[in-house]
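User: quick one, fold this
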Amino acid sequence: MTMPMAEDLAAQEFDRIVAAHRPQIFRFLLASTRDLDLSETLTQECFLKAHRHWGSFRAESSVITWLMRIAINLQKDHWRNRRIQFWRQTRTNAVDADEASEWLPSGESSPEKQLLAREQVKRVWKAVDGLSRRQRTVFLLRFVEEMEIAEIGQATGLSEGTVKAHLSRALGRVRGEVRGKP
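Assistant:
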């Protein structure tokens, strides 16, 4: 029996990291971009970049925070470099709010309650779409990815106070628009 080589162990460790965190990275990117193909592409780019730099990961933050930071930076780069193409693609390939609401677990049993829940989800997504990029990122990290304020700060490079301010503004705007008070 031969001993596994260090590279094999590192590859196995990274495979476990991908398996554990890929759904969360993809979910964040999908919620951010609302585009399945783009989210898949950015998720793959995130893990390719992480793999290339795995040896330099210093564990100053959690692995998910480090990966989320990579995903956020890739998303920013994409928007900065391909803004016009991004919006064209989003219009034609965007995830429909009805489709997205069907992915959410619902304890509602009647079709009427399910319809109301879908309408509520549409209003929330519409409000989130209207947020600034920074507010949207902070909002999604907090409420879709359930990250703590400190983790969001580490992932975005913002201070905790700035994260709280953006989150507060985002929440106020989303709540206002959902209630019909923009």
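User: anything notable?
Assistant: The longest helix spans residues 6-33.
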